[in-house]
Design a protein that fits this description.
- By secondary structure, the protein is an alpha/beta fold.
- It has two domains: about 210 residues, 3-Layer(aba) Sandwich (Rossmann fold); about 60 residues, Alpha-Beta Plaits (2-Layer Sandwich), CATH 3.30.70.
- The protein has ten helices and 13 strands.
- The protein has a six-stranded mixed beta sheet with strand order 5-6-7-3-8-9, with helices on both faces. A four-stranded antiparallel beta sheet has the order 11-12-10-13, covered by helices on one side.
- Strand 1 and strand 2 form a beta hairpin.
- Helix 5 packs parallel to helix 6.
- About 35% of the residues are buried.
- It binds adenosine-5'-triphosphate (ATP) and magnesium ion (MG).
- Adenosine-5'-triphosphate binds next to strand 2 and helix 1.
């Protein structure tokens, strides 16, 4: 898989405050990469460095294997926190202006308007747009010069549930068209719904990175009980058992990778034991996120 972005030891200090501390990560082509972290964890600062608007204190990064330069930056479209458009001009006119600034031909404007579903409103003044439409226009503008990578900072901030759903669908559509997307979010749910990979930032430190799909894999826990003596031992004999805890009157069996609750159930049945309680608890991303944040104090 082609590496789009490679970050090594990236650090940013603002005076005595370390906003981003020695971050290492890689983003491959086609990924929707989420930077997840609470307010103030360094997401925007990181994106700012990647966009060349914040100077790193230390470390480096490369885009497509090249040191950042103007040519390479043209392959990256970004929607940072506050996009600026002229309120009294139409969406269409605003995009024409942006195309001029970016020195790209205006031919793409109908396509990007169609993609973000604003074709029907293109002649209306920007100030009459809803927040969701404004955000979609910002995304359209970032796509004008057909970048390979799209960077989004908190793309659904301030939107209502309908607007949030629209932006998430749009992100998936853009990803399906083959673009690599890097987005910052403090919303777990957002990362879980739209990202393929993610990194968790905590006070400027990267405390976790990996595929979203892997989250909770091999960490299935089954809460089980049966009215037999030495039930503990029986559970230990199951080849899928990784560890056992006693909690609220039940045995909490953490399973090894590729084992599931039904395998344990089958095993018990074959041993002539019928469980009177058996509940599979898959670890949610939320639980994991909270654990990650509390672990790395
Ligand atoms: N220009 C600046 N000068 C001084 N400190 C700054 C500056 N920009 C950011 N910081 C500090 O760096 C830290 C990280 O901020 P940053 O905006 O990157 O976080 P964030 O993860 O994007 O947060 P949010 O979710 O609120 O957008 C914060 O403590 C912030 O106060
Ligand atoms: Mg931010």
């Amino acid at each position: 898989m082609e590496t789009v972005l490679s970050i090594k030891g990236l650090t940013k200090n603002f005076g005595r405050l370390c906003a981003v501390n020695n971050i290492n990560l890689n983003v491959s082509r086609g990924q929707v990469f989420g930077m997840l972290g609470p307010n103030g964890s360094g997401k925007t600062t990181t994106l700012g460095m990647l966009m060349g608007v914040v100077n790193p204190t230390a470390g480096e990064f490369s885009w497509f294997g090249e040191q950042p330069n103007n040519q390479v930056r043209k392959k990256i479209g970004a929607v940072l926190e506050h996009p600026i458009f002229y309120p009294y001009l139409s969406g269409q006119k605003n995009l024409e202006l942006n195309a001029m600034i970016k020195q790209c031909p205006p031919d793409n404007i109908p396509n990007v308007l169609e993609l973000v579903e604003l074709s029907g409103r293109r002649h209306d003044k920007y100030k009459t747009y809803s927040l969701g439409m404004k955000q979609r226009l910002a995304i359209a503008s970032a796509l004008l010069n057909e970048p390979t990578v799209l960077i989004l900072d908190e793309p659904t901030n301030g939107l209502d549930p309908m607007g949030i759903a629209e932006i998430r669908e749009l992100i998936k559509k853009i990803a399906a068209n083959g673009k690599t997307i890097i987005l910052a979010s403090h919303l777990l749910d957002e990362v879980q719904k739209v990202c393929t990979h993610f990194a968790v930032l905590k006070k400027g430190n990267m405390v976790h990175t990996g595929p979203v799909d892997d989250v909770g894999k091999g960490a299935e826990t089954v809460e089980v009980n049966a009215d037999v003596p030495n039930f503990n031992e029986l559970l230990m004999n199951f080849s899928g058992t990784s560890s056992i805890n006693r909690e609220n009157g039940f045995f909490q069996v953490t399973l090894r990778e590729d084992f599931h609750g039904k395998d344990l159930n089958k095993f018990l049945f074959e041993q002539g034991v019928v469980a009177n309680h058996l509940v599979t608890k898959k670890k949610s991303l939320e639980k994991m996120f909270l654990e990650i944040l509390s672990e790395a104090n």
